[in-house]
Amino acid sequence: MTREIAFELLSRVENDDAYANLLLPTLLRRANLDGRDAGFVQELAFGTIRNRSLYESIIEKASGRQLLDIEPAAQLVLLLGVHQLLEMRVPTHAAINETVNLAKAKANKGSVGFVNAVLRKVASKDKDDWIDAVTSKLPVLEALSLQYSHPMWIVQAFKSALSSRQMQAGLEALLASDNRPAKVSLVALPGLSEPQDLADADSLGPASPIGVEISGNPSSIEAVREGRARVQDQGSQLMVLALLAAKTGCPDNKWLDICAGPGGKAAVMAAVAKQRDVELICNEVLPHRTELVAKALDPIGKFELTTLDGRDLGDLPEKFSRVLLDAPCTGLGALRRRPEARWRRNSEDLVDLVKLQRQLFESAWGTLNPGGVLAYVTCSPHLSETTAQVAWAEAKYKGELELINANEILNEINPNLRLDASLRTCQLWPHVQGTDAMFLAMFRKSLN
């Protein structure tokens, strides 16, 4: 049953453009699986998707066939089998026998013997030997791209982003971190819960002072069920905490989250807004995402929600002391959470995204009171979406803005972050801080 569910998930991700993290709970509920069996399905399916290009090369090497010459169903069966053999603690005989049975159920009859033979060949070497076999003749970056199953354009983007901060030695560690499942982090919403009070908390968060890491099902925790705590990466928590800690040069009485869906950062802003008796408006462009924001904020209190194109808000008469622009981006900073994302994005996506980010920035800047603070956030370390956008903003609004030192503020929030305060923008990393690769730049609008 577990392998059949993993096969269905891969098939629907491949053929229907399904999102693995959204589809998996539905499949598990339908099969009435939980606990260890659910964990097995997730590791098998997600791990296979993450390592896909490496496994495809190994299959071609072991079979002597090009992937295009193997029927699609047999390809998926083999990918699942290779992951069990090379990455999971599944006995070799069980991995081969169960995967062959899966081939009998899902692939053409003529492919069953082929699947059996290829898996036995794969089982004759360990993962390191196979990596060497398929990468030994490749240039360094191409070898890393294949070994860690990251498209080459992403490897190059990561190298550039790390190099811009003199961290290029960490490239392989970053790629490896994307292939390890992220720990589940919770945020204790200020004023509604405390990190120490969250049941089943294995440890207080290493990055965020209001975060914890847990093992197990978050819904088993009362505060999560009641909406007083919620699942949220600690990097995302820090982005909001930094914005709310920055000094404003105007009365601090009205905040805006311009791209608020699905509501995680908005919930943290709302909890603090309630404590400080500040008005908060949350905007989303799509009605169904506005509904997600409403659901996230409902346990906290009543807040104004709007459903408007964020690019049109700058001309409205209302002005704000703090604005969060969590901009749409490639999402390259969260590849460990979204296993199929690396295979769906491409470098051409940047053209439209960079344009949209600038349009949203212009609008957000227009909503800001003189002395107010704007936080520009992306879940991507790609330089086109991060420091290049900062350079664009500084050139466009020269004399009108001050680039606030985000790293100084974050180091005050959590000294253990040890961020480089000689750099004014913040870039978090999964292999360093244990968070998603979140980027933050904060700007204060001139009073003149």
From TrEMBL:
UniProt-listed GO biological process terms: regulation of DNA-templated transcription; RNA methylation
Single GO MF descriptor: RNA methyltransferase activity
Listed InterPro entries: MeTrfase_RsmB-F_NOP2_cat, MeTrfase_RsmB-F_NOP2_dom, NusB-like_sf, NusB_RsmB_TIM44, RCMT, SAM-dependent_MTases_sf
SUPFAM superfamilies: NusB-like, S-adenosyl-L-methionine-dependent methyltransferases
Keyword terms of this UniProt record: Methyltransferase, RNA-binding, S-adenosyl-L-methionine, Transferase
Pfam family, one: Methyltr_RsmB-F
Entry annotated with the keyword Transmembrane helix: no
Segment forming the signal sequence: none
Domain SAM-dependent MTase RsmB/NOP-type: 159-446
Protein name per Swiss-Prot or TrEMBL: Unannotated protein
